[in-house]
Amino acid sequence: MTSSRVTVSLPDDVAAHLATLPARQVSAYVAEAVRRRAAGDTIRAALGAAGHGDYAFDLAASSERLAGPAISDDLVTRARERWAAEVARPLPTPTAPQ
Where along the chain do its domains lie? Predict the structure, then answer.
């Protein structure tokens, strides 16, 4: 795999955290964080395409939404199909929470 050198400006707290890592691990750490964020962005796009709203983090509002009506099975199926198409592989069958 090829790599590119980039320069970024980071908030002091983030830079301080990176400074605690061994120098040879910083690039891998940042690459993993960016890949996780990209995967989350893709998931949010798939959910949005299936009709799910995108909400900012708000614990009280989240609790209210969770207390509301459940997401329909059809909506879950459409989101899973979209996500499977995005990652170009079938997703495992979900299991019921225990």
Answer: 12-87
